[in-house]
């Protein structure tokens, strides 16, 4: 099973380790783990903390037991995160295929990734969220950021951003792909 949540990528894997360390070693309920993540990482709300918990679980860095969630002893090294992304996060295989097809002359943008994966967005997400297209475009942007963090994607500047200021970022295949 592949999970949907893709939180905002941190600046480094060292910062990411702190998210994993915020999950207890002794199993705790979902609520307890979300409160702990929110408090220790300064997250804005329970929903964001819940997304982080699900994402960490998708990467194999947190286990769900009958007693609750517990952090694993797996080190979130680049190889582990790459494997977890490939195996546990929704639309990563499609994204990696799109990155392989991208080039500096025609890089992959969050919008082009959304267009390529639009039909794969779960039907219930479309029905539940009137702004599902914006939600999944933002998810595409975060997903590409995670892939760049572990060298599966390489950012390239492509001109003005959508707000007319600064460079927009697009991606090509990274060294680890």
Any descriptors?
single chain; 177 residues; two-stranded antiparallel sheet; globular
List the helices and strands and how they pair.
Layout: H1 13-21, H2 30-41, H3 46-58, E1 62-65, E2 68-71, H4 78-88, H5 92-101, H6 110-117, H7 123-128, H8 132-149, E3 153-160, E4 167-173
Antiparallel strand pairs: 1-2, 3-4
Helix pairs in contact: 2-3, 6-8
Protein model, in words:
This protein has helices at 13-21, 30-41, 46-58, 78-88, 92-101, 110-117, 123-128, 132-149, and strands at residues 62-65, 68-71, 153-160, 167-173. The protein is an alpha+beta fold. Helix 2 packs across helix 3 (46-58). The relative contact order is 0.15. The mean pLDDT is 94.
